[in-house]
Each structure stands twice: as C-alpha cells, then as structure tokens.
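Progress against Task 2.4 (sequence-to-structure conversion) is shown through the following example record, which the project officer requested during the mid-term review.
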Amino acid sequence: MELRSEFLIPAISKTLKDVVLPALTDEQEVAQEQVNLAIGFLDIIAKQQPLQYAFDADELKRHQVFADELCSLLGLEGDHATIIAEAKKLSDQGTGSPEAVVATTRQLREVITEIAANGHARGDQELSKNVSSKMNDFARVQLARERAWVAPMGFETGADKLPSIEEQLK
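Structure tokens generated for the chain above:
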C-alpha cells in the first residue's frame, strides 16, 4: 500500500475532527484550541501541496532572471555564471527534484545578496540607487507571493485584495 500525503493529510485531519476533538472535555480549552489549529494547518497543507512544486519552480525562475538582470546591470557577466546557468538549466528543463529546485533557489538568494553588495560597494550613488530600486521591486513581488501563500491561515489582513497564489503562478 502506498501511503501518499494527499491521502494521509486529510485522513489525519478527519481523525482529529471526528475522534480527538470530541474526546476533549470542556475544561481542556487549550488542547481544543491546539487541535483546531493543527486541523487548520493540515487542511491548508492539503490544499497547497499540489501547488508547492509550481510555487518553488516559479520562484527559482524569478530568482534566476533577477540574478541575470543584476549581473548585467553591474557588468558581472562572468561572475556567478555557474550557479546562474545551473539555475537556468534546471528551470528551463522543469525536471529537477523538489529538493534541487529549493536548494538552487537558496543558492541564488546568496548570489543575489553578493551581487547587490558588490553594486553598493562601488561607491556609485546612482548605481546603488538603481540596485536598491530593483531589489525593492523584486521584494515587493516576493512579498505578495508569500502573503498569498499564507493567506489561508487567516493571519493576513487584506488577504481578499491579494491576487491568489494560483493567479500569481500563471
């Protein structure tokens, strides 16, 4: 029998709802609250799990393109070329493992930080402002994606005004 998470997560959630929660007494308010929180998180995971790889692959592509843009802006075409080329290949092929996609994206974040620091270290205020502007634009998009991703948890104010994560992945 194959125990896949798309089967297990709803089964665990249902067990918590149908068996564990009713077994708690009224005096166990904290336990009831925690079980309800666990059920909520499991339901969110079940809903978002099918989107996880698409989310990660899209993030990899956006980081790769952004790293390329920053390198071009700063004239660093040779620097960091290996990791950026590796990320582009992984992104273009769309066949990398989920772990490889996440690991490469993390490497790109480090590269982007180094590239931006390089731009600021040059002492050219106009260039530094341009790098900061591009970083802020990229961060705004990233923040919108992250906010949409966690919106189902109910902590995000104004979530109804955010484009859904599904819309952002198109």
